[in-house]
Amino acid sequence: MTRKSFSTLSNVINHDLWQSLCSLIHQKTLENKDMLIKQGEIADKIVWIKHGILRSYFLLENGEERTYCITFDGSMMTAMTSFISGQSSKENIQSIGKTELYILYKKDVDMLCKDSIVWTIFFKKLLEEQFIELEEKLFDIQRLQAKERYLKLLHHHPEYIQHIPGIYLASFLNISPRHLSRIRKEVVL
Description:
Elements: H1 15-22, E1 26-30, E2 35-37, E3 45-59, E4 65-71, E5 76-77, H2 80-85, E6 92-105, H3 106-115, H4 117-143, H5 146-156, H6 166-173, H7 177-186
Helix pairs in contact: 3-4, 6-7
């Protein structure tokens, strides 16, 4: 969920350590609506989006999906609580369109952190960024009107806004699809 590019993280550590990390990275491509993590599974990986979009959602008691996070190129994503705790995920993470990923498994993160304090600091920094971004999204939902949240998303990710199905976008903005339609009519691209 961090905006910090995967490639810029290499500036934090030396070349040899970076190479050891790169040797553990796997690449994967998800097609539209492929699941990365399903509710009830244990999140055993962190991914960085090379290209594409991921959404995180959970199911309400009535079966309705509630999208609470949409993540774009260069961002990190996982079911963080599950990844940290080793408990079952309460969320689903799914691709929106074709999405190319870099994957690092938890067992490899644990091994790296055990081998060097540098890695512990590196991953601590990633978690801090994740927390800051999540808190910002929470504050946005509380203090910004729906139109302002839409405009902020449009400003930061204009190339993707048309690729996100309205039902997901409305859920993410915490509004009805009808309200989203009215906002889109007001905002000229």
